[in-house]
Amino acid sequence: MTSNFVVVPQWQGSGSARAMRLVDGAESIRQQLPKAATHLVEAPLEAGDAEGTGILRYSSIRLVRERLQRQLSELEGTPIVVGGDCGVEYGAIEHAARSGRVVLLWADAHADLNSPESSPSGAFHGMVLRALIDDGIVDAADVLLLGVRDLDDAEAEFIDARSMRRVSADEVGNAVAERAAAAREAGHEPVLYAHVDLDVLDPAVFAGVGFPAPFGLDLSSLTQAVADARAALALAGAGLTEYAPAAVDAVTDDAESASDDDDALDASDDLSAILRIVAALSR
Q1: What's the topology of domain 3-282?
Q2: Contacts of 253 (CB under 8 A, 6+ apart)
Q3: For FRET with 152, which of 15, 93, 251, 261 sits at 20 to 30 Å CA-CA?
Q4: Angle subtended at Cα 125 by Cα 115 and Cα 275, rounded to the nearest 5 degrees
C-alpha cells in the first residue's frame, strides 16, 4: 500500500533544552521526502498552556493533535508520521486504532510511561504511551518494548505491574505474530503500528537526539526488526520522532565540503540513517 508522509514539527511536548531543534529536524527530513506524498501539519509558534492538566504546553499539543487527526482522515494509504517530539504519536496511534486492535512496536530508549502525577518534567513526550494505555487506545499486553533502557522508577513499576513485554531485535517478528494471533482469538482484527524514537539507536550510531542513552541498537538491527514486524502483520501506520540535529543548516550535498565541517558531517550521517529507517517503514 502507498505510504503518505505527514510531517509534524511539534516541539511543545519535549522536555529537552534542544526542543526547538525538533522543528529543524522535522524540516530537514521533510526536504528528503517525496513532495507529492508529503504533507505538513503546522505546529503553533506559541508554547501553550497546561490548562490544568499537569502537562506542560498542553493547549498547543492538543491543537496539533486535532490538526493531525484532520490531516490523517483525509489521506489514503499508510501514514508515516514524522515528528517533532513523541507526543505526536498519540494522534497517529489513535487514528491507527480505528483500523483494528493495535499491536504496537515501541522502539525507543524511553518507555514514555509517566503520568502527569509521576512525571519529573511535565513533558508530554514522556507520557504519551501511558496516555494511550490509560485512555484505552492500546492494550498494555499489545505493546512490545524494543530498546527501552532509560526508565524512571514509576515507569519501571508500571511495566512490572502490567507485565509489559520487552523484546530484543531478533524477537520482534515472532512477538508481533504472537500478539496478532492473540488478538484474533479474542475476536479482534489486529494491525501494526511501528513507533521509532531515534534515541533507540546507540549514541555512537546516531547523535542528533535530545536524550541519548548508551547501549542502544545499531541501525541494521533496528531496520531488520521493523522489517520482521511488517512481515508478521500489516502496517496501519508508523512514526519517526525526536530528531534534534546539532546543525542542520550546515548539511550539504557536497561530500567534500561537508567533510570540512564536523557538524555538517554528523548531520549528514544522521540523515543517511534516517532515510534507511524511512525505507524500512515505507517500502
Answers
A1: Arginase; Chain A (3.40.800)
A2: none
A3: 93
A4: 150
